[in-house]
Amino acid sequence: MKKIYTILTVAFTLTIASCGSEDKKTVTDNSPAIAVKIDQVKASSKQPFLSVSGKIQATNSADLSTRMMGYINKVHVNVGDKVSKGQLLVSINNADLQAKKAQVNAGITEAKAAFNNAQKDYNRFLNLFADNSASQKELDDMTARFEMAKARLEAANQMKNEVNAQFAYSNITAPFNGTITGKIAEEGNMANPGEPLIRMETPSDFEVMAMVPETEISEIKTGTTVDVLVKSINETIKGKVKEVSASAKDTGGQYLVKIALDKTDVNILSGMFTTVQFPIEKKTTSTLVLIPSEALVTNGQLSGIYTVSQSNTALLRWLRLGRTFGDQVEVLSGLNADEAYIVSAEGKLFNGAKISIQ
Predict the structure, then answer these.
(1) Which fold has domain 49-59+205-280?
(2) What is the dihedral of CA 106, 110, 113, 117, to 10 degrees?
């Protein structure tokens, strides 16, 4: 009985296997091939640009301070406020200046009375001398008194000008139209001479301060157009070199280069770090692999490129990218110097799609 069961089981298995083979059909991909254009990876032992680090700052900025010491009565602005030229920003207690001004005014009144009296005596002695009723020495003495009274009045008036000038330092005003970027002053604090109270800058007008090594500074020329990559927002802005420092005495062998940024709608702020690319070729110790940025395929944080497989299909390769040089980007890994990649296609590419190279 056991032998009969085994034979039936084997027969049933063979029957199922034969049925499966009859239902299985060969699937043929009859979709048309996508016409593509390819290009060879460009490899070079020279970097097409010299890249250095930089930092964005406002073209017009100021740290406002005072020349007098006194308690701060009121701070009239906050960080982010837009202000106009001449607008009051900080008020400093000036009670001592008010007292000094009163003293100066009293001194002016006294000096003016003495001057008027000396002038009358001087004019009288001139007439007496003309009538031979006064000696030359008496006239000389009266002239000296008159000149001294005149000098005292002038000195008193100059003291008044000095006090009035000091009043300007008790009311800190905006030197230009701009935006408040920092507020160090607080009501009740003591303001000290030269200590910053308010920081402000002109918005939407920026420049980049870049440090160039001494081996390359001789190649940097005023007026050269450069690319400025703002790292935090991954945007590239055009700029132009406007100043090149001739000394690295205080910068540790690095030369300061100032670049004026073109007007842009990109939201940039002071303090953002940048990479400045000067159009200067530089030799490298390793081979540099470059591909055009427009050929890249992006998916979230991933970047890749389509290559051609041995079976003539599109093969998506994910890449690790480096620096950007104009319209080209450096490939650190994922693509070799002796490979080809797809530049453009006359249809939507996908991984494994049949292609026809034009």
Answers:
(1) Elongation Factor Tu (Ef-tu); domain 3 (2.40.30)
(2) 180
For residue 9, the model assigns a pLDDT of 45
Q: Do 89 and 170 form a contact (C-beta atoms < 8 A)? A: no
Does residue 217 contact residue 255 with C-beta atoms inside 8 Å?
yes
Q: Selecting from 3.30.420.10, 2.60.40.2150, 3.90.76.10, 2.40.50.100, what CATH number does the domain 67-92+170-199 have?
A: 2.40.50.100
User: pTM for the full model?
Assistant: 0.55
Does 31-47+282-358 carry CATH code 2.40.420.20?
yes
Q: Which residues of the chain have pLDDT under 70?
A: 1-30, 44-48, 281-286, 325-326
**Is 31-47+282-358's fold the same as 49-59+205-280's?**
no
Contact by Cβ (8 Å): 200, 92: no
Report which secondary-structure segment, H or E, holds 89. strand 88-92
Q: How do residues 194-241 score in pLDDT, each as one tens digit?
A: 889 999 998 878 999 998 888 888 888 899 899 898 888 888 889 999
How far apart are the C-alpha atoms of 304 and 60, rounded to whole Å?
Answer: 42
Number of Cβ within 10 Å of residue 78's Cβ equals 8
**Rounded Cα distance, 68 and 98, in Å:** 14
